[in-house]
Automatic annotation (TrEMBL):
The lineage of its organism: Eukaryota, Viridiplantae, Streptophyta, Embryophyta, Tracheophyta. Pfam families: SPN1_m3Gcap_bd (PF21974). One of its GO terms (molecular function) is RNA binding. It comes from Triticum aestivum. Functions as an U snRNP-specific nuclear import adapter. Involved in the trimethylguanosine (m3G)-cap-dependent nuclear import of U snRNPs. Binds specifically to the terminal m3G-cap U snRNAs. Residues 1-146 form the Snurportin-1 m3G cap-binding domain. This is Snurportin-1. The keyword Nucleus applies. It is found in: Cytoplasm; Nucleus. GO terms for cellular component: cytoplasm; nucleus. The keyword Cytoplasm applies. GO terms for biological process: snRNA import into nucleus. It comes from the Eukaryota.
Length: 291
């Protein structure tokens, strides 16, 4: 999240840690750019791309104190493009503008848009396609109205890797330990994939809220009514504090599918070409994202 207010711009990682504190050409983002009420602020959802020192804007949450939480995705994307051009935030870095801001490419979810997003070039390394429901309001966390899709062509990170950047032989999942010993996902409500007994928790010096990594054997996984059931979890270690959330059920399921029967780009093309999808595609927009 990037927030510009009171003559300074601050960006924070997902765990709340400050990434950068800098002057920018965003509204009230630097001492030079102070304008309007001192309480006026802007909030952008961005990905920082270090090679070109650019913040790529994924979404706009607030602009000059005007909240966009209750605005549709279609309207928010319109404002991202139109309001950014009213500032010099897209200009190269300068004394009062440390980092450049740019909007990620956005396309209609038509066959042409899908092809452009999938095969078109970007100034960063792609990490999948992000699908938005046009009429959806902004919602933090997990929502079926915003979905990410990846394959080996449009993402280097289709399958999660270990600390050494290698794909483990078994799927790994990150779950949160609750007070009753259950191991749950980050969903609301959370989904339990297993549990630990009190004796093991005490011997391992674990506490509620700890994020734990587990390996999953393929033979222990069952798919029941679109949900995963894991018969056996093997503890692989405790995560450090830089990670703030457990995996969601959809991520665990996506990673399992990516290893065994991934959804292919041909499947998306076929869906777009179908009559029902042609009608629904008017309610969807797509972004090309990067990691």
């Amino acid at each position: 999240m990037v927030v510009s207010s009171n003559g300074i711009t601050i960006s924070r990682l997902r765990n709340g840690t400050i990434l950068h504190r800098f002057p920018s050409a965003l509204p009230n983002g630097s001492k030079k750019g102070l304008s309007g009420p001192a309480s006026s602020y802007s909030i952008l959802d961005c990905i920082f791309h270090e090679p070109d020192e650019t913040y790529y804007i994924v979404d706009m949450i607030c602009w000059r104190g005007y909240s966009l939480y209750d605005c549709t995705a279609e309207f928010r994307f319109f404002w991202v493009n139109s309001k950014l051009t009213e500032t010099s935030a897209g200009d190269p870095p300068s004394t009062y503008h440390r980092y450049r801001f740019s909007v990620v490419p956005m396309y209609e979810s038509t066959l042409e848009g899908l092809q452009a997003a999938y095969s078109g070039s970007t100034p960063y390394v792609k990490d999948g396609l992000l699908f938005y429901n046009k009429h959806a309001h902004f919602q933090a966390g997990i929502t079926p109205l915003t979905l990410v899709w990846k394959d080996n062509t449009c993402s280097q990170y289709l399958i999660d890797t270990d600390s050494e950047g290698q794909v483990p032989t078994e799927q790994h999942v990150v779950l949160e330990l609750q007070e009753d010993g259950k191991l749950v996902t980050s969903d609301d409500p959370p989904i339990a994939f297993g549990s630990l007994d009190n004796e093991f928790i005490q011997k391992s010096n674990l506490r509620p809220g700890n994020l734990l990594r587990f390996s999953v054997r393929d033979e222990s996984v069952k798919l029941v009514d679109g949900k995963m059931e894991i018969g056996q979890l093997q503890l692989a270690g405790k995560l450090n504090r830089s990670r703030t959330f457990a995996d969601s059920h959809s991520k665990v399921l996506f990673q399992y599918a990516a290893r065994h029967a991934p959804l292919r780009i041909e499947d998306l093309v076929a869906a777009v070409q179908s009559n029902s999808m042609e009608i629904e595609s008017t309610d969807v927009e797509m972004q090309v994202i990067q990691g």
